[in-house]
Amino acid sequence: MSAATSSASTTHATGSLQDPTKLSSWVTEAQDAKKTPLLFSCIYGIYLLGRIVVLLVANALKKRESQAEKDAKCSECPTARSRILELEQRVRIAELSARDANSRAERFAVQVRRANELAEEFQRRAMAVEERVGDWRNFEFSANEVGSLHSPQTPSRHSPASSAQSQPDSLKTQIKQSRVVSWTRSISRSVRRAVRPRRHKRSETLEAGQQFSKVRNSRSN
Fold first, then answer.
1. Cα separation, 193 vs 187, whole angstroms
2. Whole domain around residue 71: which residue ranges?
3. Residue-wise pLDDT tens for the chain (221 aa)?
4. Is residue 105 part of a domain?
5. Is 53 a domain residue?
6. How far apart are CA 54 and CA 48, in angstroms?
7. Residue 166 lies in a domain
């Protein structure tokens, strides 16, 4: 009984033990674990190579498309250049028109200044004419007074006929009156100059006056 149990235990022990020629499972797993990084690196390298090839092909296709677009654009280049030249010409024409407008505005401003200056001159002349007409009216009044003193037939200043004659009918009469006033003033000045005795003749006039007074006194005596 004991022998049988010992043999069974030995057989069970030997059955549980593996064959020394065969590798255990954990050894194979360890060997497989060593091989997996190599496999993974190979697979990843192949993936990267495929990705690089795909990128190169895509770049080549893009270059072909861009070249085709460039060729199409070059076929349209003459029309684009002509349009660019037309736009440049329009811009130049617009600049020239702007310069002409500025020069015209400056000329218009100069003309406005000249017109203002002429208007001021005309106003001054009108004021001068009015002053001359006023002087002429004063002179006419004094002449009427003197005429009424010398000749009683002359109409008075307050009569309607004299007032109607004194008022000018138009601008021509006013200009004539102003000329007459200037002439009368010049004549009065010349008369005053002629009447005034000169310095070297004052002694002669005094002597003549003394002689005349002596003769008069002798006659009265």
1. 10
2. 30-75
3. 444 444 444 444 444 444 555 555 555 655 666 667 777 888 888 999 999 999 999 999 999 988 888 777 766 667 777 888 888 888 889 888 888 888 888 888 888 888 888 888 888 888 887 777 766 666 555 545 444 444 444 444 444 444 444 454 566 666 766 777 776 677 666 656 655 544 445 555 566 666 666 666 665 65
4. no
5. yes
6. 10
7. no
Please give the tally of structural domains in the chain.
1
In a domain, 217, yes or no: no
